[in-house]
Amino acid sequence: MSAFGTQFLSELLGVFLEASPYILLGFLVAALLQVLVPASAIQRLLGTGRVRSIFAASAIGIPLPLCSCSVLPTALSLRKRGASRGATVSFLVSTPETGVDSIALTYGLMDPLMAIYRPFSAMVSALTAGFAAEAFGKDDEEATDAAPESCCGPGEEAVPSAHSHGHAHDALAEGTEGTEAAEGRGSFRDKLRGGFASAFVELFDETSHWMLAGLVISAMIAVLLPAEIVTRYLSSGPVPLLLMLVIGIPLYICASASTPIAAALVIKGLSPGAALVFLLAGPATNIGSLAILSRFLGRRVMVIYISTIAILSLALGALLDVIYQTLNMDPGATAGQVRQMPAWLGWAAAIAFAALLVLSFRRAAAPREFITLLRGLEWVTGFRLTRRRLGALAVAVLGIWAFSSCWLVVPPGHQGLVRRFGAPSGAPRAAGLHWRWPPPIGTAELVSSDRVRRIEIGFRSPGEVTSAPGDGGGAVATRRLEEESLYLTGDENLLATRSVLQYRIVDPEKYVYGFRDPELAIKHETLAAMLDVLASFEIDRVYTVDRRLVETLVLDDVRRRTEDLDLGVEVVRFAIRDVHAPPEVHAAFRDVASAQEDKLTSINVAYRYLDETVNLARGEAARTVAEAQSFATREVHRARGESESLLMRSDAYREKRTGTFTRLYLETVEEVLSRGTKIVRPGWDGSGRIDLWISSGKGEPLPVGEVLRGGAIRRGEDPGDQTQAGE
User: Fold this and answer.
1) Is 585 in contact with 493 (CB distance < 8 Å)?
2) What homologous superfamily does CATH list for 457-584?
3) Which of 528, 530, 505 is nearest to 518 (CA)?
4) Please, which residues have CB within 8 angstroms of residue 207's CB and are 6 or more apart in sequence?
């Protein structure tokens, strides 16, 4: 058998085991209701008082396990015998949407919140529709004198045989006089026998084909529908609500059959509100029932009926999504996990339910919708499917599945653990093909020995199951996350962390058989190690320098603890993803951290200013010293140069006294008499004398006279003596 067939049969067997106990419980309660609640009392409650009859019709219709086909003749019969229009419409809404069997099945396959909210929604829808029909529905020409028709097709006679949908309402459809007479006759045992026969034979025949179809569709959804598509497009918003409404209104499906389909969609990621829309609109409406309702109660009542169901199912579905979000509940994680039922009870109920299905299929013919579908398949395939051929095909499929389930395929990187009657059978199977006993004698479990698993502490990643083992939903899960993330440090401060532990299974037998929940045990040991390690550190050290040291110490402690417990795992890595103060004081811690950062910033700015000032002062001092040294060196060298220049000029003066005197004389005259015109020429006699002519600017230059000093110098005389002689 292919992998698809094996997976489909496994999913079908799983949903069959989960749903069977609750289906049988629902039919048991239905049998007791038929015994304990007289039909005459129901007729009296629905026929007196407008408001009272509407409330009574809603309350009575919720536990009655009638589908949308069987409720129509019952409601129309009540209408003929005096029930008000509002009570009739209220009964038509509340009865098919829920029943004791569907409520029990909702609890078993989904969660308690949905099991409570579903009948509440049916009550609200029924009351609203009843009062709307009573207020706005007019007395059309209702064909109250016509016989109720079957919902399998307008215009067809509803024959109360084993092959029609009219069994469950026989007691209500009969006259009041006959009913009261029947209630007065017979012992309690006869009434109990009649109630069980009505529930487990007549009512079961009505819904058996649809219940099996619902289970098959649920398994098909689990195999064929990818969870990513539902999560991406149908997990939230108005689109899934409208889509489920469009699908549910024309579709005929009973309340019990719609429950496993809705549960499978919720597990895949459908929003609970959209599932509720399908659970309300699907059983309450279909094309046949709307046609009959329009004929017998009028078009206006039919419009009120379908409008009320559509509007209220959408509103109540949106409200349910808000409730789940407010309670922080994950419907996909809790669906099918709300109860711990013994395996033997599930198998016993599944065998009993299968036997009832076989007997029902032998008694009752398939519904008209099934026959139409079968004829279409025969036309497409060209192969006629009879009951005998279908039975042979079912036996062949079950035989192939039983034979294929005797083989265990262990892929690479895995080990197979085989149990026989719940006890371990032999050593773990390595990769390959191995023989084993088929279920329920033998069971097998594949354990990945190569995959590195992770445990998230203090948080849950998006897309992961948001409730850890042992966690509940909503406030319980939130409290557990807080307990995982809050720790007391050595300086008596609370610290909030988010961390991850990674481990690998090295001994599957010890891991699976040693503890009921080994992953939860590893998590608890990790929490204990974190408590011990963080209690020895101050909060600031964990924030800053010692974070890596904390991770190392926790990893070593967890390894030691898991080895002591002999869990059969290897702890690979521990890492702290985030560490901060608790949310309640996180703002205060952030302000303190900001103040500390401001303090450090101010200190660093002061140190920077100190360094800059000292360095600038040292630079200025060095520059001043260098300038002083340069000035001293320059002055010394200049003085030395001037002194050497003076000595050299003195030597030159001594060597050339006359020329030097003449040069100095002329330079002095040039400087002193800078404004006048000066003419310097050699003397006329060629004796080396110099004639100096000076003009004041008013006439010709006049001679100054003989320059005695120059002449004396040229003659080799002492100018001082000449000067003294002149004086």
Assistant:
1) no
2) Band 7 domain (3.30.479.30)
3) 505
4) 65, 67, 254, 256, 257
Torsion of CA 12, 349, 30, 133, to 10 degrees: -20
Single-letter code of the amino acid located at 243: L
pLDDT band at 171 (very low <50, low <70, confident <90, very high): very low
Tokens for 681, please give them: 């020429």
Contact 292, 148 (CB under 8 A): yes
- Condensed to tens digits (0 to 9), the pLDDT of residues 628-661 reads 999 999 999 999 999 998 888 888 888 877 777 7
Distances from the Cα of 587 to the Cαs of 119, 582, 583, in angstroms? 45, 9, 8
Q: What is the pLDDT of residue 700?
A: 63
Written as six digits, the tokens of 462 are 């998006």
3-state secondary structure of 687: coil
Pick the residue with more confidence: 512 or 54?
512
Distinct helix (H) and strand (E) counts, the chain: 30, 12
Q: Which two tokens stand for residue 522?
A: 């590893």
Compute φ and ψ for 197, nearest 5 degrees: -65, -40
Percent of the chain with pLDDT over 90: 13
Contact 228, 69 (CB under 8 A): no
C-alpha distance from residue 123 to each of 104, 116, 129, 230 (Å):
17, 11, 10, 29
Which residue ranges make up each domain of the chain? Answer: 3-365, 457-584, 595-655, 672-726
Q: Where are the alpha helices (DSSP H) in 435-507?
A: 475-485
DSSP reduced 3-state for 512: helix
Distance of alpha carbon 24 from alpha carbon 256, whole angstroms:
11
For residue 575, the cross-strand partners are 500
Report residue 458: phi and psi, to 5°: 90, 0
Round the CA-based radius of gyration of the chain to a whole number and report it: 54
Q: Other C-beta atoms within 10 Å of 564: how many?
A: 9
